[in-house]
Amino acid sequence: MRTRLLSFALAAGLAMGSSACIKAMLTNGQIASTRQGSSAMDTIGDFEMARSAVGAGLAQFEGMHRLAPDNTDALFLLAKGWAGYGYAIAEDDMDAAIDANNEELAAYHKKRARMAYERAIFYGLELLGHSAEGFDAAKKNEDTFKKWLDKNFDDKENAADLFWVGYAWLSRVNIAKEEPALVGELFVGVAMLEKSVQLDPTYNHYAGSVALAAYHARTAMSEMDQSQKMFEDLLAKTEHKTLVVQVNYATRYACNKGDRALYEKLINEVLTADDPDPQQRFTNTLAKRRARRALTKSRMEDCGF
After folding, report:
1. Cβ 241 vs Cβ 235: under 8 Å
2. Average pLDDT, the chain
3. Which of 14-18, 94-98, 212-216 comes out lowest in average pLDDT?
4. Is the dihedral of CA 201, 206, 211, 217 positive or negative?
5. What's the burial of 145, exposed, middle or buried (CB within 10 Å: 0-12/13-18/19+)?
């Protein structure tokens, strides 16, 4: 009797272990498939439909991470998803409130955007931690951080991870310029983007170079010549099909340079573009929304025009 009970307990234990293993395999498989299919969102040009899908997707990714906390695909989806939400949804709402002169609502959406970027950074750093330890010590200064990146990230596949963390890092600083502590660590995001571009300059339609070109035109006293060269190179490489290039070229470089003719030329090119790349419909739709705002009186005046 005792032998039969022991055999039953052993069999039950093996069955439970096998079931847990199967569930883990199914969960990991679902996450991997979701990551592979996530680019389908880029082909949607309906902003309101995409807006709803982004929120639903993030809820799904959070659940996946809860079920598989060590799955790097889930961490990547969360870093990318929250960074994208901050840019495409929360900042869009913030800009709309600013244009409506609603300071209270603008401040609310600014908090939402910052939360999104901070969450993207949180998951992104956890993701990078699977490849390398010592992030906090490495970011002591620019030199130590670049050495850390060079030592631990040398594969083309690392470009995507570094891009989304670096982009979220820069975006958080951009909406919190009033905080010296964040501004003082701006080099961290810049270095991540530079490393991403070094590993794979074409990732996400040259998005790393777009972000860096905008960074170099952050003020009228920054690296304006470098920014202009980068933007001109990007226009050629993207064949004018990636409309965020023109929008950033106008609102960052031309605005700070005080070049109204270039500003209006670039913005009008975006507004008259007719679905230049079906694979970038969502980001190009966002570019058109920002371009329309860029021609409002208040934003033109902000540029000194």
Report:
1. no
2. 91
3. 14-18
4. positive
5. buried
167, 175 contact by CB (below 8 A): no
Instruction: State both tokens at 75.
Output: 């961490």
Phi/psi for 199 (5° steps) reads: -75, -40
Q: Is the pLDDT of residue 15 over 50?
A: no
- Say how far apart CA 226 and CA 22 lie, in whole Å: 53
Residue 97 CA, distance from chain mean position: 22
Contact 108, 142 (CB under 8 A): no
Q: Which residues contact 5 (CB under 8 A, 6 or more apart)?
A: none
Encoding tokens for residue 117?
């970027």
Q: Residue 50, exposed/middle/buried by CB under 10 A (0-12, 13-18, 19+)?
A: buried
Residue 275 main-chain phi, psi, to 5 deg: 45, 65
pLDDT in tens, 119-143: 999 999 999 999 999 999 999 999 9
Location of structure tokens 């996946």: 64
Q: Which two tokens stand for residue 302?
A: 């902000």
CB 180 within 8 A of CB 221: no
State the DSSP code for 294. H
φ, ψ dihedrals at 53, nearest 5°: -65, -35
Q: Where are the alpha helices (DSSP H) in the chain?
A: 2-37, 47-67, 72-85, 91-99, 103-128, 135-138, 142-152, 158-174, 180-184, 186-199, 203-215, 224-238, 243-248, 255-257, 260-272, 281-294, 297-302
Check residue 208 and give its pLDDT. Answer: 98
Residue type, 243: L
Q: What is the pLDDT of residues 191-203, one digit of tens each?
A: 999 999 999 999 9
Q: What angle do CA 201, 88, 80 make, to 5 degrees?
A: 50
What predicted TM-score, i.e. pTM, was given to this entire model?
0.89
| Closest to 166 measured CA to CA, from 143, 150, 187 | 187
Say which residue the tokens 């130590």 belong to: 144
